[in-house]
Amino acid sequence: MEAPFELLLDRLGAAPAAIVTDTFVPGAVRVGNRRGVPVCILSALGATMFSVQYRFDRLPTAARGSADMADVTDPCLMENYIPGLKSIRLTDLEPTHSDKIRLDKILEAYPYVRKAQCVIFTSFYELESNAIDFLRQELPCPVFAVGPCIPFMSLQENQADSEEEQGYKTWLDTQPASSVLYVSLGSFLSVSSAQLDEIAIGLAQSKVRFLWVLRDACSRVQDLIRGGDGVVVPWCDQLKVLCHPSSVGSSPTAA
C-alpha cells in the first residue's frame, strides 16, 4: 500500500503538515519517516488494550501464540507482566490472540509505534490513567487522550428522522433523562444462542431501561425480554441514540 499512498502524496503538490494513520497501517509511518512528515497514530483501541499489544513480547510464550493457547491457564493479572493492567487476566487474551493472522499483524505493526511523532487515544485520561501513564513512560513520543471523537456537528443539522428511526426515537423521548442503557454486540462479536438468551434474560431481570440493537434473532429475543423495561430493534442511528438525553451509557461491546 505504500506505493499508492506515495503517489497520492505526490499529487498533493505541497507536503502535508502531518499524516494521521491507524496503528495497523505501519506503511504510513514508513512513508512519513522517509519524507520527513510527522506521523500521528490515531488508535482505534483503548489505551489499555493498546498497551497489551505494544508489550506483547513481555507475555509468557503461550499468551503470545507461540504455544497451545490451552496452556494459558495462569489466573495472574496482566500487571505481573505489564504495569498498570490491574483488571485483565492472561486468560482474557485468548479470544483475541489465538488467531495467528491477528498475531502477525500485531507483531508487524507495533514496532513502528516508536517511530511515530505522537499517539492519540479517543479515551479519557481519568478512565485509563494507569495505561496512559505506562505508555507515556515507554514511548519516545507524546501520548494524548482527547476523548471521544463524535461528529456532533452532523447532529445539529435539521434532518428528519426516517420511518425506521421514529419508533425507537419516540420511545426514547418518553424515558427519563440518563436512564437508558444502549446495548450492541458490535459488528465482529458473535455469541451462541444460549449466550444470547442469557444476555436477554439478564437485561429483562435487571429492571434497567435499555435499547438493544440486534440484527438477528430479534423476534425471539423480544419474547425473552417481555415484561422488561427495554426494546429491541434491528437497526438504529447509534450516534443519535448515544447523544439522546435519555441515554446513560452503552454496553462494553457497543462500538
TrEMBL record:
InterPro entries: UDP-glycosyltransf_plant, UDP_glucos_trans
Entry keyword set: Transferase
Keyword Transferase listed: yes
Pfam families from the UniProt entry: UDPGT (PF00201)
Domain of life: Eukaryota
GO terms, molecular function: UDP-glucosyltransferase activity
Protein known as: Uncharacterized protein
Gene source species: Triticum aestivum (Wheat)
